[in-house]
Amino acid sequence: MNGVTTRLSAGETTAWECADFVRTIAPASPLTPYAAVRAVNTSTVAMRTCTEWTRRIISTGGAQGCDQFEVPTGDPLCYLSSKMDPIPCAQASTDAGEALIGTAPAGTVVWILLEHDGPWAPKLLESAELPGAAKNRLMAWEKAVPGSRLQLFRSDQPVREPRLMIAVGRPIDPFIVEWRLPDYDELTQIDLEGPLSGVASGSATIHRTPKHFVCTHGKRDACCAKWGVAVHREMAQLAPESVFQTTHVGGHRFAANVVSLPHGICYGRIEPTDGKPLIEAHGRGEYFDLEKLRGRACYDEGAQVADKIVREEVTDMHLEALELINSQLVDDQHRVRIADRSQRLHDVAIQRRRTDRFRPESCGKDPAPVFEMDVIAHAKL
């Protein structure tokens, strides 16, 4: 046994030896079978070795191998067996304890949203029913407008006059410009220069009414439909004029994902029961539950984390209660300065750290490590 233990620690053992080792120590060990193996299998063991012996361990327990061997599902030992018993990426992320904050699509200031009732292709511009001229116009806008992102959206009503929305989610005084189009070819006649500056032209209207977009893009990732559809259904019943389904917003594993515009506030792991308080919070001009917050998309990942930390400190949920003064990356450390409503400055230092927990980034992908954003310092000036 000592020889096998040494080889386990060195990452040199075979799958058969690992399986025999588990069977040998499991009955006699005061630890659970899983904990006993981990006690000698340090985090430095080669992933290839872990893959082989994990398959053997799981196979000895059948389909319920993780439960039989009491393997926490957030550990690579269980996820490396996903070839045999796949776990949806959203469930995998939750089980691994992956944090939401700092995962909003960083640097997204302008959201270009076109109403299109589908079907949606995995990549939105490949949707067959979207005319070529419209696709070309959307691609040109995305290329020309810094910090922009394309989205298709739909409501439960048939599209007669498709809507175009441009949400400018800037940090101060964000807004939405909206058009009703006679057809998609009308996109070629629209110039965004004025609207991006808050100046309406032609049939465009400007407003600041909250709009909520729920990702239900099942053809991109099954979790988006699995969790998103139920959330959209509940929210749309409460506010049919301001809740829509939308295409991929990034982060399938955080489904159900909701983006609240014009501020560009992104939430993850939203449940149907969250719909009413989320809509009401934004109606009051406030953030919803900070524990469901992925971040404000116009910020970088460090500023997204700092925004949450300072809000928790000053207990102020108003959407515009804080002002981001600056955010920079220095020696792999995010350094963020934020002013609260009393004009007090908060300097927050954040470090990104790799953990020993794994989850797939999306359904069907191999397990990848979970990263966390650690607050190194928070000084109040």
Could you describe the 3D structure shown?
- This protein is an alpha+beta fold and 381 residues long.
- It folds into two domains: 2-85, no CATH class; 110-298, Glutaredoxin, CATH 3.40.30.10.
- Helix content is 31%, strand content 24%.
- It is built from twelve helices and 14 strands.
- Strand 12 and strand 13 (345-360) form a beta hairpin.
Q: Element order, helices and strands? A: HHHHHHHEHEEEHEEHEEEHEHEEEE
Structural class by sheet pairing and helices: alpha+beta
CATH topological fold name of the largest domain: Glutaredoxin
Computed CA radius of gyration, to the nearest angstrom: 24 Å
> Ends: how far apart?
59 Å
Essential attributes:
alpha+beta; Glutaredoxin; ten-stranded mixed beta sheet; 31% helix; disordered N terminus
How are the secondary structure elements laid out?
Elements: H1 2-10, H2 15-28, H3 33-40, H4 47-60, H5 65-68, H6 76-79, H7 89-95, E1 110-115, H8 132-144, E2 148-154, E3 163-168, E4 175-180, H9 193-196, E5 205-207, E6 211-215, H10 222-238, E7 243-246, E8 258-261, E9 265-267, H11 275-283, E10 293-296, H12 301-314, E11 323-330, E12 333-339, E13 345-360, E14 367-380
Parallel strand pairs: 1-2, 6-7
Antiparallel strand pairs: 1-3, 2-7, 3-4, 4-5, 6-8, 8-9, 9-10, 11-12, 12-13, 13-14
